[in-house]
Specification:
This protein is about 35% helix and about 20% strand. It is built from 13 helices and 18 strands. The protein has helices at about 5-25, 40-55, 125-140, 165-175, 220, 230-235, 260-265, 275-280, 295-300, 340-355, 380-395, 410-415, 445-465, and strands at about 60-65, 70-75, 85-90, 110, 115, 150-155, 180, 195-200, 200-210, 215, 305-310, 320-325, 325-335, 360-365, 375, 400-405, 420-425, 440. The strands form five sheets. The chain has a six-stranded mixed β-sheet with strand order 1-2-6-3-7-17, sandwiched between helices. Strands 11-13-9-14 form a four-stranded antiparallel β-sheet. Strands 4-5-18 form a three-stranded antiparallel β-sheet. A hairpin with a 2-residue loop joins strand 4 and strand 5 (about 115). The longest helix has 24 residues, at about 5-25.
């Protein structure tokens, strides 16, 4: 057997054990958001350390910053005259949301019809174990890895990577690499891999509307006193028009125009509205929104979007006939390439203040953790290596795509290392329902990604090796 065949055999032999490790990993409720138990995120970091140690990596350690959920780092640096690859994933997860809407306990993994269900199954604990499986395959089959390997597993990605710059200041030198591989993206569809070359940015703000010193009886005062909830609703409605297009003046002023090549790349991608609606769980009769003059993929990846992700008023349960004193909303703004997060916060806030009716008081707090969009040209030897590896593992060439979400890690790390290429892949797919109820991982695609990463290490060694003098 050639070395790579031995590696594939080693991965397949160990995959049941790696799946068990993934299931144990999912059982740790490592929600990094405020209000959840931080010790669970530390438990997850310790589990990550164990997984990487079992894979055969060296110098496995927790990277600590005061008041920050732990990162985990590891390495194997014994490959002479070879490039260095930094593998990234994150071990923190989103809150479970409405637990009663899950078909099973979000933190008790369940396998159904070839998919593994549980919070973090696809986003991104599968990525952590995937990195470990690929590296372990090489070490167990051959005793070596074709490239030098570093691994960084983050503990605060789901809350915006707010301490990333501090991490780079302290640990940047020991994390330097020639290429980044991030397992926090996904496939185009089940069985069809993808390489992500564009990510939207992200910022947020919270708006609070006040009208009264205290709630008042809706019968005694209704008809004269302003209702802060209705005032807030009017303000939020001003953010979009009847078609769901953004109506924030000057918000789009700093969007970087697409190049002809980028437009052509988008135009080549098919969009089946009925399939998209089904995958998204769109209810019958409900329509897609946005500017019909732009393609769906441009709207999703290359244009800003606004979502109201939280509302504070009185819950329906326990409510009574009161006019509330105040109401608040948390607003998420996805940013297109070229947009400045701070400027976008300001123009959204300006519109909200102008639209406030009845003289209600408006307080706006800007979120501190923002990230600009990231975009690269997916060409060169690193992308050729990724294309070859995914094609070999899946039997079809990958799709080059953008993602409407944000991974704050990517841009700062690539820039800190001199603009090194960043390869974004991952085992999620459009039906994985990451950040939603019944998150799941397609186990067949996960296996293929484990093999693809093993091949990728060989491809990097062949394509990125410095030329001999």
């Amino acid at each position: 057997m050639d070395p790579l065949s031995k590696v594939h055999a080693a991965i397949d032999g160990a995959l049941p054990a790696f799946q068990r490790r993934l299931e144990e990993f999912i059982r740790i409720p490592s929600v990094s958001a405020p209000g959840f138990e931080p010790l669970q995120v530390r438990r997850s970091a310790e589990a990550t350390r164990s997984i990487l140690e079992e894979a055969g990596l060296q110098n496995v350690r927790l990277l600590e910053l005061a008041g920050v959920h732990p990162y985990v780092a590891a390495e194997w640096l014994d490959a002479l005259d070879a490039p260095t690859v930094l593998f990234y994933a994150h071990h923190d997860v989103q809150p479970p949301g409405r637990v009663e809407r899950w078909k099973s306990d979000p933190f008790e993994p369940v396998e159904r019809d070839g998919r593994l269900y549980g919070r973090g199954s696809a986003d991104d604990k599968a990525g952590v174990v995937m990195h470990a499986a690929a590296i372990a395959g090489w070490l167990r089959a051959t005793g070596a890895v074709p490239c030098n390997v570093k691994v960084l597993i983050e503990g605060e990605e789901e809350i915006g990577s707010g301490h990333l710059h501090a991490l780079l200041e302290r640990y940047g030198r020991e994390l330097r690499a020639d290429v980044l591989v991030l397992a926090d993206a996904g496939n185009w569809t089940v069985g069809q891999p993808a390489i992500t070359y564009a990510l939207r940015g992200l910022t947020e703000l919270t708006v609070r509307v006040r009208a009264l010193e205290a709630p008042q009886h809706s019968g005694v005062f209704g008809g004269l006193l302003p209702d802060p909830v209705q005032a807030l609703a009017r303000m939020l409605a001003a953010l979009t028009d009847e078609q769901g297009r953004l109506t924030v003046p000057s918000l789009a002023d700093d969007i970087r125009p697409l190049t002809p090549a980028e437009k052509e790349r988008l135009a080549r991608l098919p969009f089946a509205e009925e399939v998209y609606a089904r995958v998204a769980g769109l209810l019958p009769g409900t329509r897609l929104v946005g500017d019909p003059q732009r393609s769906p993929w441009e709207r999703l990846w290359m244009q800003p979007a606004i979502a109201v992700i939280g509302l504070d008023a009185h819950p329906i349960k326990g409510s009574s006939n009161q006019i509330l004193a105040d109401a608040a909303a948390r607003i998420s703004v996805r940013l297109a390439p070229g947009q400045d997060p701070a400027r976008c916060q300001r123009v959204v806030a300006d519109l909200l203040r102008r639209c406030a009716p009845w003289g209600v008081q408006v307080e706006i707090e800007f979120g501190r953790d923002s990230a600009p969009a990231w975009m690269c040209e997916p060409s060169g030897p690193a992308f050729a290596a990724a294309d070859a590896a995914l094609s070999a593992a899946f039997g079809v060439q990958p799709v080059y795509m953008g993602v409407g979400g944000s991974i704050p890690f990517v841009g700062p790390f690539a820039a800190a290392f001199g603009g090194v290429p960043a390869i974004l892949t991952g085992p999620a797919d459009p039906t994985s329902r990451i950040h939603s109820e019944d998150e799941s991982l397609h186990l067949g695609d996960w296996r293929k990604h484990c093999h693809a990463e093993a091949i990728l290490l060989a491809e990097f060694a062949a394509r990125l090796r410095a030329p001999r003098g």
